Structure formats: structure tokens, C-alpha cells
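User: I've been trying to design a sequence by hand for this structure and keep getting stuck. Would you show me what you'd pick, starting by listing the structure so we're on the same page?

Assistant: Good idea, let's start from the same input. This is the structure you sent:
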């Protein structure tokens, strides 16, 4: 799973990237047009608890790839422009995360001279929408000619899907707000459409607004209801300071500032939600591991996430849900309580299931 952080220069994008990555800011990279990439462990208290109970040789967390694309700058003509290089950088991401500045700091200039979060969001959305519109317009021209010449059924099925998307974009609506079934989405996979990607919008506020965070989130949800995006207010500088502390000091720091949950947890949980992901676990003396799968994955598909042979030679899955295991304390007691069961290949794996795959 790849999440691309996108934002204007001086929005706090890089500080959030380093907060999530848990590393210090490299001052030499600030202002440079280089994309930073970091593989980040997904925190999961359930995996932590299972690791304490089983005491394995190794704990393996689920991971995501985080991409910090260069911040958008003011060009010589006094406008912020999105280049083709920038667009190419974000097209491969599975989801986009807009970092939007609300904090006011006279020592840090805004590329558009004034702080206006809604304007900045609309700027990004308009640019991405125009990029998708241009791409589909060119594709439609070729596709209509090819359909007339070819008997390829795939092209004939693709054409109405592209036309539907193009019409939606012409109404200045992002594609994530268009209802598409799985078959229609398959025809669009190769396009890497930007407004079709799930979207999170992070509003970077200052420490003076901590007590108003719920009100801030609510106000932006009302203003941006037509974008179908998740809204997360965060405190860039404070969150970064928090990430640099030892674990025993973090709780006291959060209490002092009234922070109930770190940005890292909110962002990762929301990312899983919008991408339709969740986790199952495998446990034992050698290893406790969290595996990331799509929601509604079957037991056989989930087995394939572990190893291809497990998919091909799947027989049954032994299943105990995490909460049942914690409640009863062992697999034997889960069997006694009826919480342990054998499931076939079509069983839909739930978030938090503990699986043991039987295979030939």
C-alpha cells in the first residue's frame, strides 16, 4: 500500500512524513525536488498483546509505503503550477493525502501569500481533475476509432465506462464520487486516475487550536462534503516532538497537550479504512505477524498472502478471533468454548482473525 503526501510548500508535509516515519528531519533535503520514501510499520495493539503472550523470536508488523512528494512552489510568473513530473510521481500511489496548512506563521510564507485551506484544497482538486479530464479525452478519441475498426469485446466494454467517467469529470466532480462496480473499475486500472484514488485531507493546525479540533474537523467535513474525503486535523510541530520522545515520556506529553491519539494512529487507521484493508494474524513461538488483506478476502485468498503454495494447496483454515483468544487465553480453551473452528476456502476473513492454514 502506497500513500502519497501531497501539498503546497511550507504546509508541514515533510514534518508529518518524518513524524510518521519516526525519524529526524534531514535539513539538507528541505526545499529539494526529491521524493522521499519510507516503509512504516503499522502500529497494532492486538499484535503487541499477542507478542507478549506468545513471546516469539520475531514480531512482524504490517507495513505501508509513505511517499513525500516535493512541495508545490510558486513559479516565476507568481503562480503555483503542477508539473507533469509531479503528476507522474503521485500516479502510482494507492491513496493521496493532501497536507493543508491552517496554522499562521509570519516567518513561514505561504506560496499563495495568504492562508486559506479551502482554496488550497480546491486548487489541488482542480489540477488533478483537469489532468484526469485531459487523459480521458485523449483516450476517448482513440477508443472510439478503435471500436469501429476492431471486434475486441474488451474495447467495446471499456468505451461506455470511459464515457461515463469523462461526463462526470466535465461536471467538475472527482471520480471517487462516481459509483462504479468492480468490473467497471477493472477497465480503469491502467489509467492511474488521480481523482479516483481514495483521499485523506490533513489540516495542519497550531497548538492554540487543540481544544477546537473536533469543531475544526466538523467544519471542514461540511465544506468539503462533495469530495468524499476523510478529514484529519493534526498538529504538525507538536506531533513531531511527540514522535521523538521515548515511549515512557509520550503519554505524559500527550496529557499535557490534551492529545487523545497520535497523528500516526489516526492516519494509518484512516488509510486502512479508505483502501478497504484490514489485518489478520498468524502466531507461534517463532513469529507473530500481522498480514494486510482486502476486506472480504476469503480464507484461501488470505492464505495466498502468506505464501502462494498455501493458496494452491489450501485445505482448511483454523480460525479464532483475537477477542475470543484474549477472553479465553488459549486455543484449547477456545475449542472448549466453541470459539475455535475450521473454515473452508470461501470463508470471509474478519479483521482480527487468527489463522492457522492447513495445506497439502
Amino acid at each position: 500500500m502506497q500513500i502519497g503526501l501531497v501539498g503546497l510548500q511550507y504546509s508541514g508535509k515533510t514534518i508529518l512524513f518524518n513524524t510518521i516515519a519516526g525519524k529526524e528531519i534531514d535539513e539538507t533535503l528541505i526545499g529539494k525536488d526529491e521524493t522521499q520514501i519510507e516503509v512504516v510499520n503499522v502500529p497494532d495493539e492486538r499484535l503487541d498483546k499477542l507478542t507478549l503472550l506468545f513471546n516469539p523470536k520475531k514480531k512482524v508488523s504490517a507495513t505501508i509505503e509513505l511517499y513525500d512528494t516535493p512541495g508545490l512552489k510558486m513559479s516565476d510568473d507568481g503562480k503555483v503550477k503542477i508539473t507533469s513530473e509531479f503528476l507522474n510521481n503521485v500516479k502510482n500511489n494507492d491513496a493521496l493525502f493532501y497536507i493543508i496548512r491552517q496554522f499562521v506563521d509570519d516567518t513561514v510564507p505561504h506560496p499563495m501569500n495568504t492562508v486559506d485551506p479551502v482554496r488550497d484544497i480546491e486548487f489541488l482538486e482542480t489540477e488533478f481533475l483537469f489532468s484526469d479530464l485531459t487523459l480521458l479525452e485523449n483516450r476517448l478519441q482513440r477508443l472510439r476509432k478503435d471500436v469501429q475498426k476492431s471486434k475486441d469485446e474488451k474495447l467495446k466494454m471499456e468505451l461506455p465506462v470511459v464515457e461515463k467517467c469523462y461526463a462526470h469529470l466535465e461536471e467538475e466532480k472527482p471520480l471517487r464520487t462516481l459509483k462504479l462496480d468492480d468490473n467497471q473499475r477493472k477497465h480503469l486500472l491502467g489509467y492511474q486516475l488521480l481523482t479516483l484514488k481514495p483521499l485523506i485531507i490533513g489540516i495542519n493546525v497550531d497548538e492554540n487550536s487543540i481544544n477546537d479540533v473536533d469543531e475544526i474537523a466538523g467544519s471542514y467535513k461540511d465544506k468539503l462534503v462533495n469530495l468524499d474525503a476523510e478529514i484529519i486535523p493534526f498538529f504538525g510541530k507538536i506531533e513531531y516532538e511527540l514522535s521523538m520522545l521515548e515511549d515512557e515520556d509520550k503519554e505524559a506529553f500527550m496529557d499535557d497537550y490534551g492529545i487523545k491519539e497520535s497523528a500516526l494512529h489516526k492516519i494509518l487507521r484512516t488509510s486502512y479504512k479508505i483502501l478497504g484493508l484490514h489485518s489478520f494474524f498468524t502466531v507461534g513461538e517463532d513469529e507473530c505477524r500481522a498480514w494486510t488483506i482486502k476486506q472480504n478476502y476469503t480464507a484461501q485468498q488470505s492464505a495466498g498472502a502468506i505464501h502462494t503454495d498455501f493458496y494452491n494447496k489450501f485445505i482448511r483454515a483454523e480460525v479464532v478471533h483475537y477477542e475470543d483468544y484474549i477472553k479465553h487465553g488459549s486455543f484449547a480453551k477456545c475449542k472448549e468454548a466453541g470459539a475455535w473452528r475450521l473454515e473452508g476456502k470461501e470463508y470471509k476473513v474478519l479483521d482480527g482473525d487468527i489463522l492457522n492454514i492447513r495445506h497439502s
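That's my pick for every position. To get oriented when you compare it with your attempt: The first strand starts at residue 2 and ends at 7. Residues 127-195 form a domain with the DNA polymerase; domain 1 fold (CATH 1.10.150.300).
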